[in-house]
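Subgroup meeting minutes
Present: P.N., E.W., G.H.
Scribe: E.W.

1. P.N. recapped why we're keeping a running log of single-chain structure predictions: easier to compare across weeks, and new members can see raw inputs and outputs side by side.
2. G.H. added today's entry (416 aa).
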Amino acid sequence: MDLFEKLLTDRGPLGKHARLMHDYFTFPKLEGDIAPRMVFRGKERIVWSLNNYLGLANHPDVRRVDAEASEEFGLAYPMGSRMMSGNSVHHERLEQELSDFVGKESTFLLNFGYQGILSAIDALVDRRDVIVYDAESHACIVDGVRLHQGKRFVFKHNDVENCERQLKRATELTKETGGAILVITEGVFGMGGDQGRLREIVALKERYNFRLLVDDAHGFGTMGKTGAGTGEEQGVQEEIDLYFSTFAKSMGSIGAFISSDKQVIEYLQYNMRSQIFAKSLPMPIVLGNLKRLELLRSQPDLKANLWKNVRLLQDGLRERGFNLGDTDSCVTPVYLSGSIPEASKLTIDLREGYGIFCSAVMYPVIPKGQILLRLIPTSVHSEADIQETLEAFSAVAKKLQDGVYAEETPINVPVG
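Output recorded in log:
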């Protein structure tokens, strides 16, 4: 068979819907300044799909530093990978400040979150080692685990007893291979919003020999007294062996980092292929991230206002009878029951009839018969944004219950 013929025959679980979804449900174009209200297809919408938790993506001080750094350095400097010719005092300063903030000895900057953690997993383990990981880990973790040439055991989501059972299996196996055990989980799970059971998993170290890697993309900047993350929130930051996060969420930027003991980070610097063979982060990104980190640390009102909005939104939804699952973070999932056509029509109605833009998740990402609407509150949303959204959700939920979206009419995506 011809390769291209094969690709066109089986377009994948999402790709097979591309003709219907493209440019509306997938690959939508949000225009205007990054803000709670943006333009979609020529009309203003209240946007709940941007992980701009602290509002730093368009903060005036950040915009100024981004612009000044671009003017001074351009986007090419420094050239080459960090190892060869792309290092600078500013890269190292950002690493040191991140280490101080998250309470670790050393930090390594990474170009992207997805690429970074995948490559870190690949560098940390060899075929003798065993990985034990949460079943609802992000795709970047799953893909990193797929690269592993040794054994891996998955435990039921946030099920510590099941995690221990997998640790027992891993322990027995490593007695034969002479390898080690790496446990991977998340600080905050980005789909359901529930925190990982970090405190309970750390307690298992009393009985099992393993190292813990935590992906805290949604916890860094939003969780804990100072914003240092979910480990700080749960009082176990010191027991996390490898702390990973991205700049794409609370920092509203590009890049990521991993923090650990100094010797471990040195090992990663010399063994992470994604960094050895890739260009260094451009200077404007580095200087912009330094400014973002400064604001994150020096302006606690940003996080305080975020959590005020989180509580207003989540309490308002719960009071109206909505199911938010087990979220105990800023991530706000709203679970409804309905078919894929109903979910599609409801989402269109939210956007076109009520001016609300949020992400809709349906089968095959979640089980058939379920609809998940995921909202991401930020510190820059207003009470008016929240109230308008609550009223819209009540209205579409009633329509869903009354069968309005179940009528035998085709899904007509509005023409842009």
